[in-house]
Amino acid sequence: MYEKKPLVAIKSPDLTKLQAVVIDMRTIIYISIDADPEEAKSRYISRLGFKKL
């Protein structure tokens, strides 16, 4: 017989300790409160450009 694998508890991040950065209508990313939202948005968009190639 097969042994059952134990369930892995996935812990989601606490959104009260993060700030939301709106990229476009459908995309919101969460960064730490002390991080720069404009820099995070530009880094996300630059990475998105590499994925589309």
Describe the fold and architecture.
- The protein has about 55 residues and is of the alpha+beta class.
- The protein is built from one helix and two strands.
- The chain has a two-stranded antiparallel ribbon with strand order 1-2.
- A hairpin with a 5-residue loop joins strand 1 and strand 2.
- The longest helix is centred in the C-terminal third of the chain and has 15 residues, at about 35-50.
- The radius of gyration is 17 Å and the shape is elongated.
- The protein starts with 17 loop residues before the first strand and ends with a helix.
- The relative contact order is 0.15.
Backbone shape: elongated
Query: Approximately how much helix is present in the residues?
Result: 25-40%
Q: Termini distance?
A: 47 Å
Uncertain stretches: none
**What proportion of the residues form beta strands (DSSP E)?**
15-25%
Largest sheet: 2 strands, antiparallel
Strand neighbour order, sheet with most strands: 1-2
Short note summarizing the structure:
It contains one helix and two strands, in the order ββα. The chain has one helix spanning 37-51; strands spanning 18-22, 28-32. It has a two-stranded antiparallel ribbon with strand order 1-2.
Highlighted features:
53 residues; alpha+beta; 1 helix
